[in-house]
Amino acid sequence: MPTPDFTSARNRVLARRSAREASLQNSLASQHHAHASNPLVTRLPVPLGTLALKTLSTWDLISTPFGTRPSFRVSQVDAELLDEELLTLLQAQVGDGLKYYGAHLRDEWAAEILLGLRAVLWKLSIWDHDTSYGASLQNLRYVDARHAGAVPRPPSRWQKAGYGILSVGGRYAWARWENWLAEQEGDEGEVSGNVRALSKLSGWISTTHSLAALGSFLVFLVNGRYRTLLDRALRLRLAPLTSQVSRQVSFEYLNRQLVWHAFTEFLLFLLPLVGISRWRRWLSRAWRRAKSLVKPAGDDDEEAEPKGELAFLPERTCAICYQDQNPTSTTENEALAISGASGGVIGSAQTDITNPYETIPCKCIYCFVCIATRLEAEEGEGWTCLRCGVLVKECQPWDGDVVQEIPRPKSTKKVSFSDEEDGRRERSASRSGPEVVGTAAGEKGGASMAEESKQWAQQDAGDRGEKQP
């Protein structure tokens, strides 16, 4: 039950509103009387004088904001922007859902998608609740502007139906019309004269509508009654839902955004000083150690030889380039599936090794830029090889395509013959260094001197035998 104080306050508000309306009516009546008694108007003929009087009265009604009780213009414009943002958000979500059935559906049926979304939003908002979602957030609703009473009257059914037909069906029909004209003009053949005429007519209608919408918006900025040209044609205006709610500017979201912005800027400044890469390497090393400790004893034989995560790649493929281009496909089964789809070749021309460098000590080959970048990023703490899993700290140029000369000892060959009486031939070949060759030559020289002295002894013995008989 209302209290006496509340009743008296309500009576005062109603009395103030009645006084404002009476003042408005008196002001309009005085202005109409002044225009009617104007000598310039009275001198005109009857049809022109009546038209001039109505024009001046309409101008006074448009130019004065008193009596129109407009809501805040910025709230009405924000309501329209919120409705467009909601429509864009729903359109993006529908497009993301349709991409699994075909990427072409979102582009081919864009006009139909907008038609369905606008129809659903119109039915659930304006037709059911006399307000759009953006207007309800701004504490606004549509009212019938034809009724000039103190209490606003909700819009009629034909007004809401006309709003839906023009805003939903009209936009769809115009979009399909423009698409049809674009298809006709885009054909390779000659464009007919009818199509050119229709295209010019369409452009003229679009320009006229834009100019009319601009003029309507300028009038809206003056009196704040009709936000759009469609609202002006249907006599629909936005009014507050209740007068008990005062408009307060809240900076809660702005303060929250400023706090998060300052926090993210502080993190971006702090992360390089902390060295996040060093912590990441420490955690990965600790994880590998823990994994090796909890590994079953039976797996020692299977994993006796270290093996990296990309050991299945061919030698011509740089494992770092392959990992950068395929961040999600790092297992052998996925790589084999991809290679089967691409003709049995793992990798591509972009993953082939360029300027090969080999790691120390595992001798795995990578691109110079790739391996140098990884080693430099680790800051001397070592990088785990993707092929064999060995910790790598250095690299060197690959010498696989260079034939290195292996140093071999020098060799000599010597052939000598035996005595002429026996007629036998002896070959002695020695393969040694310079010192061994010198020794063999000295031995041969001594043997030849011994043979010569033996021959002289035999000849002396023969001479003596001939002299003794």
Main features:
469 residues; mainly alpha; 4 domains; 3-stranded antiparallel beta sheet; two-stranded antiparallel ribbon; Peroxisome assembly protein (Peroxin-2); membrane; protein transport; zinc ion binding; Pex_N
If you had to describe this structure to a student in words, what would you say it looks like?
With 469 residues, the protein is mainly alpha-helical. It has helices at 4-36, 39-42, 46-63, 73-98, 105-108, 110-129, 133-137, 157-185, 193-223, 229-234, 252-274, 276-293, 319-325, 332-341, 368-377, 434-467, and strands at residues 140-144, 236-240, 356-360, 365-367, 383-384, 391-392, 394-397. The chain is elongated and about 180 Å long. The relative contact order is 0.05. Residues 83-282 form the Pex N-terminal domain. It is found in: Peroxisome membrane. Residues 403-469 are annotated as: Disordered. Keywords: Membrane, Metal-binding, Peroxisome, Protein transport, Transferase, Transmembrane, Transmembrane helix, Transport, Ubl conjugation pathway, Zinc, Zinc-finger.
Distance between the termini: 183 Å
Strand content: 5-15%
In one word, what is the shape? elongated
**What is the typical, i.e. mean, pLDDT?**
75
